[in-house]
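This part of the workshop introduces the protein records we will be handling. An example says more than a description, so a record of this kind follows.
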Amino acid sequence: MDRSSPAIAETLGCAPVFSQLRTAELQQLVAIAQRRVYRRREVIFHQGDAADRLYVLESGCVALTVRDTEGARSAMLSALAPGDLFGELAILPGSTRCFTAEALETVAVVALPWGPVQTTLWARPAAVESFVDLLSQRIHSLSELVADRSFLGLEQRLAKTLLTLALQHGHPAGESVEIQVPLTQSDLASLLGAARTSVNRILSDYEEQGLIHRLSRHVTQVDVNGLHQLLG
């Protein structure tokens, strides 16, 4: 076992899908896994690439984005937290990536070739059930994203997004929650499908109300209770 194997085993073991495996099964995947580090704004894979690997995020934050057919505009779908799987559509034979995965900060990931993963998971019903749950959550998240953009105003969507980030990437800081992911105002605008100037205006209003704190271009702390009250 090389020096990276314990880290890989720990990362995979923390993911719900792989936590269903026996130790021997997990070690078989560890033996073929690769641990990779990406710098801030480095692309892990592009939309349209062949989908042949599954990834587990070990540390840092990864953004999933989609681009229009001309590649001129992009929209962020989600900001992943450690322990999250991505690239799961590699389950479909001959499929291509339907989004781009980009590091928002220095990140470490574990990459697994899909073939051996599929063989291992399919032999363990509990792991299959967990994988199906993951796919269901993805569909639910995308459906909620479409619904929010259709029925909620930008101020509500921004408050909801900040609460989600606080839940997934936050740590308590007194009466507030510190967001441990370097999302810029442009990133938030992309995540909301809105203009950066509009997002910045609302962030300024939130800051005046004491609902958030910003450092440079990043939201660093949020008042969770205050944002919940804003949403009603």
User: Anything to note?
Assistant: Residues 125-151 form the longest helix (27 residues). The two ends are 53 Å apart (CA to CA). The first strand starts at residue 34 and ends at 38. DSSP finds nine helices and twelve strands in the chain.
